[in-house]
Structure prediction request, 958 residues.
Amino acid sequence: MTTPALELRRLTKRFPARGRIGTQGDGGFLAVDRVDLTLPRNRVVALVGESGSGKTTTGLLALRLLGATGGTILLDGEDITTLNPKAMKAYRRRMQVVFQDSYASLDPMMTLGEIIAEPLGIHGLLTAAERRDQARRWLEKVGLDPSYASRYPHELSGGQRQRVSVARALVLGPTVLVADEPTSALDVSVKAQIINLLQDLQADMGLSMLFISHDLSVVRSFADEVVVMFRGRVVERAPADRIFDDARHPYTRALLDAVPVADPKARRRRKFLTAEEIAAATPRFAAHELEREPLLDTAEPQLVALAGSHYVEAVVGG
Amino acid sequence: MRLVEIEDLHVSFAQHEGLVQAVRGVSFSLDAGESLGIVGESGSGKSVTCSALLRLLREPPAKITAATLKLAGEDVLGARNRTISNLRGRIAAMVFQDPMTSLDPVFTIGHQIAETIRAHQKISKKDAFDRAVDLLRRVEIKNPASIARYYPHQLSGGMLQRAMIAMALSCAPKVLIADEPTTALDVTIQAQILQLIKDIQAETGMGLVMITHDLGVVAETVDRVVVMYGGRVMETGPVEAIFEAPLHPYTKALLGSMPGQVAGKRRLVEIPGASPNPAHPPSGCPFHPRCPMATLECREIEPRLEEKLAGRSAACIHVPAQQRVPEAVA
Amino acid sequence: MLSYIVRRTLSMLVTFVVVSVVIFLMMHAITGGPFDGYDMPLPDNIRARLMAQLGLDQPIWVQYLRYMWGVLHFDFGVPYQSPGETVLSLIAQAWVPSLTLGGLGMIIGAPIGILLGTTAALNRNSPIDYLASALATLGLTIPVFVISMLLILIFAVWLGWLPADGWGEPKKWILPIMAYAAVPIATYARYARSAVLDTLNKPFVTVLRAKGLSERRVIFQHVMRNSAIPMVTIFLPMFVGIATGSIFVEAMFRVPGLGAFFVSSIDKRDYPLEMALMLLLTMMFCVSYLISDVLYAVLNPRIRIDGGER
Prediction:
């Protein structure tokens, strides 16, 4: 078993309660609550959830763009949780990100060539001429004409800008790519292009990708494993087909159920659970139903292992 | 009398950079009780079409022309301001995309709903507020009496959108126009809001126009579909037919490129290129730069929306008028 | 809300003390003392005695503390330039004309400016808009003494309608008030125009129209209320600046106000008067910002409830 490309252990982020008029400071808001996540080499793990689930925060924590309150982050087996910025710089080469808003991600005053070459310059790699060359090659790799190197972001469409974001992220040859809702802001007819692009590059470069999304349909054709988050906690984790065929946690089921189906004949009325009802409907398993001993001896909900690498947040008991 | 009648609608905007042609000859209609979905991507002109119907665009810079633009039999283009104000909210009500920015931040929810009622009926402030609370209850908001006293910034997106729907229903409109009502919401909330809209439509028998880019939403909600692209209508037809056997290459491509339809990891079918820029629309058929079936003629001829099958029209010179339903798309 | 006001008041007091120290030091940093500027130079021993009498031979921090101690008892000392009265009575007397004329200029100017700016915004890019914007720019760029001179020239000399100077009867107030009003009119016109345009572009305004509300209701009930908040909060700080008197306007119209003292007290090294004037200004500004902030919180439901952004 090789070292996973990225591992998050009991990662926690608590935001302090803002000093509001008339409030006393309380414990603060727990955005990410002891999250465990493993990103194996050369695999795509999708992190799904709705607003408030903590999925984007988790991504930012993993990238060390936000400071964690607790837990550990391991990149290629090395602990990077508390490294200072200078020490982090070397690791940043191995871990890159593509964000949702391609318009805001690219400096409007720089040409596309400069944007893609910039990371190389920051890490002191290659000569200026070689960097320019690399930028042009990467433009081609992401499906744009190399002559675009002299163009500016505002001259491109959303999908094209996102391609440039991908090129910029991959020019350093990272091992881990975190993609935070990369297609959410794109037109339907363009989403498929970007997903295919990411899929191709991932296979080519053996990237380990953490794909954050609220869109389960997008995830289905792309992910190896799916991690579902709800209110800061991981509630289910399984290989992609198991999640879609055999979800065990009520939240995952609710999420899957809510996705509109592109088949008019399959219309049906849905029954909805409130968030409270979901929180109260934690699955319960007897010890013998589990694949492995539960990690903690407690009556509190925890991630338990079911057959087939399928983990669910559940209560263990009779 | 049809509820909505649009024939050859053109909407353009005079901007510094030039003329932006948002809508270039759109025609469709809606009868009472019908539900229609307008599907399109950014730049398709779907939102502008419905905004033009209620004259919600600033004219100038917008310029609206049409052979027919009628709402409940009233001509919208030539109408006086008072007629338009009368139509808005009472005959046709709109629900917009982002509930967070759609409400006035300095007034309570209840006040804003009551205000709508009082704009169209002679009724006391108290009575109007009570009705507002009733409406909030109807859209499944718990504790409607206290929620009515809240300000918009205190409520979540889902609750605000329910309040918007309540506001739209307040004067019992004949048609509800929903412009991407769930795009800004979470998936579970989206499902609830769509179901609410459908329930209310069934209950009141009002017409529904659902504008969206999401084919799944269309499949779930409406009976008939209008597919728009590049400011024009590409295809119209009943929803089942559109999904089972689409006629127009754009519709086919769109359906084919939807992710998540088939289980398992796979490469998706792409549509190359990008949506057309309304400031520089392509010549001839707007889809031709990206169409797998495009020929030289497609660049020259602007295909007309013609009936190819009973109740189904498409704007493509390569789709022949047929007697039989074509083979279903795999 | 109460704790907010308390906290702001405390920080205001801290600001006040810090500013007073800085001003005191700056004041004394200017070379020369009150007795060095006379044409008739004083003999050294007489000068030394005078300085000692006024406590000017003490170390700086002693002078500061003694002065501030007096301030706490509302004793601002005696102005060097007219030892017959106290600083307090001098300021109290001179402030009345400044406050009256400047205050009225503000109270009349602000609404006119708002009207001008709103009309411009509602008729964007029309001739009215360009005219209003031009007027606003002129009001801000033409120096107030030039405006004063023009007013005198037009209304007093050419037309002979209004008197050009003095302070006595209200008729004499009209021209100086017009001169004072120029800046508020111009500033408010610009603020109002941009605030109203901003609001008009917000999505909720389209929704209001879609509900079938009359345009009148949309503008007066909704747009104005949303645009008003920033305009209310700039009123007080602007008021403070104008109501303490402009040396130019008071000089041109020969109004016995505070304006002249601001300059003369520095020029003559009249430390007590200078200090008192500065403290007055500082206190007024601090209080006006405090009131503005509280007012903003009251008017904006987002801050009033919840105490801030969510």
User: Anything to note?
Assistant: DSSP finds 13 helices and no strands in chain C.
